[in-house]
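--- STAGE predict ---
source: upstream dedup step, 1 unique chain passed
mode: sequence only
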Amino acid sequence: MSGAEFEVGQINLPRWVTNKQVQRVLTDQAEHGGWELMRLRQYRDGSRQAWLRRKIIKVRPTLYA
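--- STAGE serialize ---
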């Protein structure tokens, strides 16, 4: 990556959550939180773990004294 900094988040989803519900949760995070899916892992017991990231935007001052 070109020096970009990212914030990383994690969501744990139990096995009883359906694929449609997982899709809805991840879509809401992307649309309203600015997150993008980095990795989604499904375990043998059916639970899932999702890693999300979003770019950290640093604001630089425009006025100098």
